[in-house]
Each structure stands twice: as structure tokens, then as C-alpha cells.
Amino acid sequence: MPELRQDAVTGRSVVVATERAMRPSDLSKVRSAEVAGPEECPFCPGNERMTPHELFALRPDGSAPDGPGWLVRVVPNKFPAFKHCEVVAGSHSLFKRCAAEGTHEVIVHSPDHCRHLAEMSVGDAGKVMEVYRERYRVNEMDPEVDYIHLILNHGAEAGASLEHPHTQLFGVSLVPPLMELELRGSFDYREKTGGCVFCDLISRERDSGERVIADAGGFIAITPFASRFPFEVWIIPDSHEPSFGGMSDSQIEGFAGAVRDILRKLNLKFNNPPLNYYIHSAPCDGGDYGYYHWHLECFPRVSTPGAFEWGTGMMINVITPEHAAGFLRS
Amino acid sequence: MPELRQDAVTGRSVVVATERAMRPSDLSKVRSAEVAGPEECPFCPGNERMTPHELFALRPDGSAPDGPGWLVRVVPNKFPAFKHCEVVAGSHSLFKRCAAEGTHEVIVHSPDHCRHLAEMSVGDAGKVMEVYRERYRVNEMDPEVDYIHLILNHGAEAGASLEHPHTQLFGVSLVPPLMELELRGSFDYREKTGGCVFCDLISRERDSGERVIADAGGFIAITPFASRFPFEVWIIPDSHEPSFGGMSDSQIEGFAGAVRDILRKLNLKFNNPPLNYYIHSAPCDGGDYGYYHWHLECFPRVSTPGAFEWGTGMMINVITPEHAAGFLRS
């Protein structure tokens, strides 16, 4: 059973999920991608029996679950970092632990083992985003889930363990620390100014233009002023909406186009780099987060944080965001 | 000039240090180590002119600065992330920035291009630790320096850009966020219990033994209960002392032995893995940190944090610390 452990000094939580693990002697595997050809890939059509039973799929041909015929397919993660569980582990004041309660799903982008989102048509990428929203909406109804984290790990150097393009959805029973920080900042800004910090950022960024990469279809792509990573990009809807689940039908295509285009630019400039993105969205714990503004944060893995970054919690970025935006626009 | 930028939403600070950079088109270089043979290595004897003038060196033969004859040598970082500067950059409420004020030094461990700390005698490793303490003490006298961060990046995959074994010392004009968190936790624990959280942890860990790897010479090595990384190790002095600069002469050998032995174990188990360590120590900003307890935190880079970790601020660890300790003891 995956568990949440809390550090006695800092209070920070760590997920210990040995179901995801191999024995220590196998750990060298973690460093190289488990590249599986289509025959052995659990996400390829024909191999549906290799995954747990599907939770959802787009099947325009009306085909039966757990067989071929799907366009986008959702299954529970076979090695979950969070799951629903009854047992609660024992605690001591210096060694606090509890079950890592929640859900962990995989959204397979398409039947094609090699088709990166960057290479999809906007229509096909839009189908993936529709499924993101569908699973977001289902999971936010789960009373044990307080926050939903949608992520892409692309490439072994970005933490992907399987090559076939897929997104992971984590439904977790707490609001993660970085979201707490963003929520507090957004709340304080609203208290102080009456406005939304993201809406005001969009307006300022449009005025200067120096960190804008793209601005179309209701979404703006910028390199944030305090970018942690070289070529970090945020994609923000220009209409105020706290939750990803609140994205309207008419916004889906604009969002898919914005994401697809940024991934395509990064691919062109860095030759298919390992990269990550995640969506930050209001918690679904019943609170009022009207002041928050959902968005996506993306970064190619072109630099390696070392002991300065891991020991201080501060990043060193060797490229200015203004330079990065100019490079990605060109 | 390196600058500190503050994110408008979270308040987090990022160092933008383009002096460390290459043009974006050169960024692919960042991903592979700049492995330089001894002829081209700025840290090898005979190449002293390739670095800025030395700040300090152990020269038992009395040889002149900036030439061969040294055992351990300290120079300013040629591409500093922090430096003393007059100019303060302009700010806007959404785009706060200031100079990244401070110092950034390099401690070259030995004249030998290939001699990892793991392979040194305890006596030679002790000389390196003596120089750590010497530079720590010099930098803490600097009125612009509030916190000193000593780090090791070993291997390109751990963020090292030069192969010749070296340590970096950052003297920074703020207390980093992760230290703030540790200080607050340690302070709260003292308020609540009257004791030191690290002293109490040592006592508990000795009782159970399940996370203890080594315990000798005044230093205990444990895998922390809420380890963020597989095989994360903390080395903690068993006598209470807030500051690394307060380490006594008689402790140096014990510390050097503990560090050398842990690196050697990791080397044996993982075949010279990329790894990082850093020292956490009380700030030198004039505050009273009697409740804090300095220590070293180390981890091999055998796993790759992805978008879950970067987006939530929570780590997923696939190996229990109890398992890791057993494996490293064996």
C-alpha cells in the first residue's frame, strides 16, 4: 500500500510507493527508459489485456471495452502512487505516516505507439484534451479526492517509464504544497488589489510582448518572468476560470492548439527533447477558489538541477525568459 | 550580472545567471558533461592560470599562489550565480528583481583529475573538510552573506559541468526557502518539547536501528524516515551544534570518515553513480539559531523526478528508507 510520510523537521510529505518499485539491485533500470516495442507495449491496440480494466475510452465504432477500436483510452495505473485503501498505517510524532489515499489513472493519447502530441492534428489533440476534462470531472466527484494533478512525462530523462505517449491523472487527498503556495499568492493578490494575478499578468505581458510566444484561440503562451527552467512555458486561458474542469467546449480546440504548437516548437528547436507539463487548477475540496486561474506549466529537460537547487529550493536558470521567448518565437 | 527574480504568484525566487550560460543554440551542451582531459581542465595542476586568482590553498611546500604545489585549492567561480555588485535592477510589483548578491567559490579537492572523495584516505578527505570549514568561516564574516550553502555535484547527470572533483560554496544574501522550512520546524519542535528535533531523531533511530547505516566517530548516517529519493542519506553529528562552522578540530576526521564511507558504499552498490550532497547549517545573519543542528544530506541520482514532483512539490520514492538502509549496510 502506498503511504504518505511526513518529515519531522520540515513537515514535507513524501509518497513511498513500493508497488512502483523494483528491488534495489534492479534500480539501475530506473535510469534507462523501459522502451518496449509495440508487441510488448501495454498501451498498444491488441494488448489491452496487459492493463487493468479500462475506466473510459473514446470508441466511435462502438467497440467493446478492453479490446481494440479506441481512439483515446483511460486505465488505472498498474503501479499506483495513490489508491483508495481502508488500512491506515501507524504513526509516531517523529514518524508520521498514513495511507496515500486517492486515484491514479493513465490516459493513452492514441493507438499509435510513436505519435507524440506535437505531431497530432489539432482535432486529434483536442480529443485527448476532452478526455482530460472528462476524467477531471469524474474524479472531482470523488469525495476522497481534494486535488487533481494532470501530468505529461515525455522521455525517460523526464521521468517517463513507458514510451507510448500517455498522460497521468493523480487524484489526491490533500492540496499539494506548491498549489498551497499558488493559492495563497493568488488569494493575497485578490485581497490587495481586487483582481486576479494571472489576469493582470496576461494584460502586462501583452503590453510588453517580450515574454509572449503565442496568443491565439483564447490562450496565451508566455515564458514566466521568474522561469525556473530554461524555456519554461506557461499556457494560460485568457478568460478567468479557476478550474480546468470548467473549460468550455468552445475552449477545447484553442487549448489543444496552444499545447500542440508549443510542443511542436520545442521539438523543432531541441530535436524532440524530454519534457514535462502539468496543469495547475483549483482544488475540488469544497472550498471557494474563485480567485484562482487554471493554467498549464511546461518545460523541456535541457538543464540538470543539482545540489544547489535540491538543497535550497531555489532554481538557477541560465537563460533569461525574454531570450527564451524570442528564441521560441523565431 | 546575476539577478534574483521573484514570481508574482508564489513569491518564489529564481536566480537568473546568464554569465553561466551559453546561447540557446548551444544549450544541448548542457545535457552532456563538458568532460575535459587533464590538459584542458582548469582545476588540474599546471593550469592554474585558467581560473581566477586563488582565494586559499593548502600548500605544505610553501609554493606560490596560482601555480602547482597545492593539495586543496579554492578559487572564485568563473561563472558565478551570486556575486557582490553595486547595481540594483529595477522592479515592478508583478516583476520584482534585484541583484543576486553574494559569493560563489570552488574548492578543488585534490590535484588528481580522477580522484573522487570516495577513493581518498580519511586523512586526505579530512583536508578537504578542513578547507570547507575554513571557507565557511571566512564567508560567514562577510556582512552581505546571510547563508552559506556547500554542495557537491558529482557527474553530469547530477548537474556537474566539470569532471575534476570539486565542491561549490555559495554565500547568499537571503535564507533559502528550504532552510526557512527546516528552521521553522526545528524552532517549533524546541518550543513544543524543549529539545532538538535532530538530537531526538538520532536517539530514536539508534533505538530502532532500522534506518541506521553507520554510527561511528561522532557521526550517524541514516536514511531519513521521509526520504525524498531512493537511498537518500543524512549524516548528522551526534553532538548538538547549529553551525557547520562550529565543527571542532577533533570532529573533522569523524566527519570526513563518515562522508567518505557513505560515498564509497554508494559507489560499490551503484557503480559510481551521479550524486549530490549539500550541508544544511544555521544562517550567519546574526540571528540566534541555537535550536538548529547542522548536517549533510546526500542522494545518488538513480531516479528521475517528473511532472508530478515538479508540479506538486511532493516526491514519490519507490524504495522504503528501511529497505535502502538494509541494502547499504549489507
Account of the protein in words:
Two copies of one chain form a homodimer. Chain A starts with a strand and ends with a helix. The first copy, chain A, contains seven helices and 14 strands. A ten-stranded antiparallel beta sheet of chain A has the order 3-4-6-8-7-12-13-11-10-9, sandwiched between helices. Helices cover 27% and strands 22% of the residues of chain A. About 2% of the residues of chain A have low confidence. With 330 residues, the first copy, chain A, is α+β, with helices and mostly antiparallel strands. Chain A is globular and about 55 Å long. Chain A folds into two domains: 175 residues, 2-Layer Sandwich (HIT family, subunit A); 149 residues, HIT-like (HIT family, subunit A). The interface between A and B is large, with 90 and 90 residues. Strand 14 of chain A pairs parallel with strand 2 of chain B, so a sheet runs across the interface.
